[in-house]
């Protein structure tokens, strides 16, 4: 916050192509929104931003000259744009520049401006914390990386409501994640309609974050989020082949070894009717490989029971799949016709009583599997994140437990812990949902 009441003034030199101009416009818009004035002269400016071009030699020379001129005439200079991404050339030629970023780095430019020329206090805007207003507890937060979906699953109307996939620029996602971590968040829950498709619509365009180029693609995004030093949990991961790339990141402890991957069914004909990837053998062998690479992996999936035309044999195939797959967490739902969904037109809808009966059978089998898998954790040491504390102890979650949907870890001697603490516990008891444990 500025201590003087003088409105801070920024000079702006914009060089380069139309893409650079758009970057300049974005920065100028942010400056004006935050109450800075844009000044047309060096003498009147408190600081100058030079947006550079680094395409050909003459453009590099022009950019370096412009930086030199701004340094001579003003002295406080921040450099952005393509030349900033070309190694150390700017710092080597002009060591006095205050900061250098690459293109499409409005957030980083604004951070540098805030550091060297603080904005005036705005009683309206400054009430909003940098991480925005969050409805979740302070120690975890959802990060939405895209909107919409390119798939057309026949039971779903999301694409008709929200349109095709639109991914957020990777630098925006990373800045939001960084703000959340700076504000004390210990767990980031990555969400979207289709997390593994992140960046497809952007053709995996390269963005800029913390001085480095980074592809807008789920593997690279997960890797970058993993550098923030908090739990990173991936939800709604459609089973594309490239999901396999995420497992080594989990094995290496970069991101949380947890995959929320909706398979929806196991029978090839039903999956085809659903317009989902239809090869359960392939899924089973992938699960096996994932577990070989990352034995700690927790798999959560969802399934639809009683889809139109589902025969007894096809349903049995789903049960058989569950027995072999040994998933950790399963959510199952009876098919219900949503207005506007293509599946409504399919023949042979299943009677609700039969759907109910199949759902109960599936859940009974899965309850046994879940209980067995949790029982295997007794005696093991786990890291947990504390959600709440009362006189009975702490209520926490392990890597295997997403908030709201999975189980809990009751830390029986955790009365002295606080919300947001991460602590090692030893598991003493388990049921089909939850664990009980003691601080190690
Ligand atoms: S179920 Fe998911 S993947 Fe399929 S269309 Fe709906 S949002 Fe997209």
Automatic annotation (TrEMBL):
UniProt remark on cofactor binding: Binds 2 [4Fe-4S] clusters. One cluster is coordinated with 3 cysteines and an exchangeable S-adenosyl-L-methionine.
GO cellular component assignments: cytosol; ribosome
UniProt keyword annotation of Phosphoprotein present: no
Molecular function via GO: 4 iron, 4 sulfur cluster binding; aspartic acid methylthiotransferase activity; metal ion binding; protein methylthiotransferase activity
Domain TRAM per the UniProt entry, residue ranges: 375-440
Cofactor(s), by name: [4Fe-4S] cluster
Enzyme Commission no: 2.8.4.4
Reactions that this protein is recorded to catalyse: L-aspartate(89)-[ribosomal protein uS12]-hydrogen + (sulfur carrier)-SH + AH2 + 2 S-adenosyl-L-methionine = 3-methylsulfanyl-L-aspartate(89)-[ribosomal protein uS12]-hydrogen + (sulfur carrier)-H + 5'-deoxyadenosine + L-methionine + A + S-adenosyl-L-homocysteine + 2 H(+)
Domain MTTase N-terminal: 8-118
Compartments it resides in: Cytoplasm
GO biological process assignments: tRNA modification
Matches recorded under InterPro entries: Elp3/MiaA/NifB-like_rSAM, Methylthiotransferase, Methylthiotransferase_CS, Methylthiotransferase_N, Methylthiotransferase_N_sf, NA-bd_OB-fold, Ribosomal_uS12_MeSTrfase_RimO, rSAM
Binding site for [4Fe-4S] cluster 1: 17, 53, 82
PROSITE patterns: MTTASE_N, MTTASE_RADICAL, RADICAL_SAM, TRAM
Keyword Ribosomal protein: yes
Primary residence: cytoplasm
Domain Radical SAM core residue range list: 135-372
Keywords: 4Fe-4S, Cytoplasm, Iron, Iron-sulfur, Metal-binding, Ribonucleoprotein, Ribosomal protein, S-adenosyl-L-methionine, Transferase
Function: Catalyzes the methylthiolation of an aspartic acid residue of ribosomal protein uS12.
Family per similarity comment: Belongs to the methylthiotransferase family. RimO subfamily.
HAMAP family: MTTase_RimO
Protein name as it appears in the record: Ribosomal protein uS12 methylthiotransferase RimO
Organism encoding this protein: Nitrosomonas nitrosa
């Amino acid at each position: 916050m500025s201590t003087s009441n003088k409105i801070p003034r920024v000079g702006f030199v914009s060089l380069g192509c139309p893409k650079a101009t758009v970057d300049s416009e974005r920065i100028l818009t942010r400056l004006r929104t935050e109450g800075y004035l844009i000044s047309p002269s060096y003498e009147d400016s408190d600081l100058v931003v030079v947006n550079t071009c680094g395409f050909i030699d003459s453009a590099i020379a022009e950019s370096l000259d412009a930086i030199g001129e701004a340094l001579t005439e003003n002295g406080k200079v921040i450099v952005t744009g393509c030349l900033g991404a070309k190694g150390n050339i700017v710092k080597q030629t002009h060591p006095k520049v205050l900061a250098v970023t690459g293109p499409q780095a409005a957030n980083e430019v604004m951070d540098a401006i805030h550091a060297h020329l603080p904005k005036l206090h705005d009683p309206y805007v400054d009430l909003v914390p940098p991480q925005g207003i969050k409805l979740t507890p302070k120690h975890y937060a959802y990060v939405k990386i895209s909107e919409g979906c390119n798939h057309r699953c026949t039971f779903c109307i999301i694409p008709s409501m929200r349109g095709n996939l639109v991914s957020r620029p990777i630098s925006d996602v990373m800045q939001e994640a960084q703000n959340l971590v700076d504000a004390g968040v210990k767990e980031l829950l990555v969400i979207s309609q289709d997390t593994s498709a992140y960046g497809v619509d952007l053709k995996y365009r390269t963005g800029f974050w913390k001085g480095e180029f980074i592809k807008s693609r789920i593997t690279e995004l997960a890797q970058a989020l993993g550098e923030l030093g908090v739990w990173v949990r991936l939800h709604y991961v459609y089973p594309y082949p490239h999901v396999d790339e995420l497992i080594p990141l989990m094995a290496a402890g970069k991101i949380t070894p947890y995959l929320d991957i909706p398979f929806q069914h196991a029978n090839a004909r039903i999956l085809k009717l659903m317009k989902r990837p239809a090869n359960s053998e392939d899924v089973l062998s992938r699960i096996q490989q994932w577990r070989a690479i990352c034995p700690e992996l927790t798999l959560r999936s969802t399934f639809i029971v009683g889809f139109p035309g589902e025969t007894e044999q096809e349903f049995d195939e789903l049960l058989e799949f569950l027995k072999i797959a040994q998933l950790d967490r399963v959510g199952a739902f009876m098919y219900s016709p949503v207005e506007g969904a293509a599946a409504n037109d399919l023949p042979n809808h299943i009677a609700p009583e039969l759907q109910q009966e199949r759902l109960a059978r599936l859940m009974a089998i899965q309850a046994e599997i879940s209980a067995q898998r949790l029982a295997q954790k007794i005696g093991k040491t786990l890291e947990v994140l504390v959600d709440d504390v009362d006189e009975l102890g702490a209520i926490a979650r392990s890597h295997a437990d997403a908030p709201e949907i999975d189980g809990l870890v009751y830390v029986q001697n955790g009365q002295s812990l606080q919300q947001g603490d991460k602590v090692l516990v030893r598991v003493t008891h388990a049921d089909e949902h939850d664990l009980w444990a003691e601080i190690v």
